[in-house]
Design a protein that fits this description.
Radius of gyration of chain A: 13 Å
Distance between the termini of chain B: 32 Å
Structural class of chain B: mainly beta
Oligomer: heterodimer
Shape of chain B: globular
Number of strands of chain A: 11
Number of strands of chain B: 11
Helix content of chain A: under 10%
Order of helices and strands of chain B: EEEEEEEEEEE
Number of helices of chain A: 0
Order of helices and strands of chain A: EEEEEEEEEEE
Largest sheet of chain B: 7 strands, mixed
Radius of gyration of chain B: 13 Å
Strand content of chain A: over 45%
Structural class of chain A: mainly beta
Distance between the termini of chain A: 37 Å
Largest interface: A-B, 27 and 32 residues
Shape of chain A: globular
Chain lengths: ~110, ~110
Amino acid sequence: QKEVEQDPGPLSVPEGAIVSLNCTYSNSAFQYFMWYRQYSRKGPELLMYTYSSGNKEDGRFTAQVDKSSKYISLFIRDSQPSDSATYLCAMMLGGNEKLTFGTGTRLTIIP
Amino acid sequence: ETGVTQSPTHLIKTRGQQVTLRCSSQSGHNTVSWYQQALGQGPQFIFQYYREEENGRGNFPPRFSGLQFPNYSSELNVNALELDDSALYLCASSGAGNTEAFFGQGTRLTVV
């Protein structure tokens, strides 16, 4: 069993829809949770960063962490074609340690 | 732009050869981590360098080695290349007391 599980998709939604992306994890010691966006043949770009449980909002993006369920989510509101990319969840045990990634979910927003 | 730069962007090598990949970290960052990303997979941690010392290593064989220099730039060396080493190699930098890691654009290595 992988430490971090993420549905690889692909996921296709119409422009303007709300997108929900999720990851589950097995190691309850994870403290830091991130979402990265990766365009084809590019490096991952940090989107959202959360410490411990709770919600964090940044523009059209909302990250949620539920440590009791070992479940994290990323919501994208008013999705745009430019949001089409692979979304990677990542977790860290402590500050400045290695990142453990999910497989990534490939998302396509249809105009 | 993250300020993390990697070179070269693409590379083709023959099985058994050796390769060196380079990374310049973001200004003010003293920690560099290297990841391998196979096609369709998430990045896998190779190792991390903090102030020129290895500070953690993933499940990669010893033929994967690295260096960090006084200016905090870094190299990843891979000896005796195998076909399965074909992947996107990513460098990430982070600063002391700052847990956010920023990635470069990656080096795509193809082993034939």
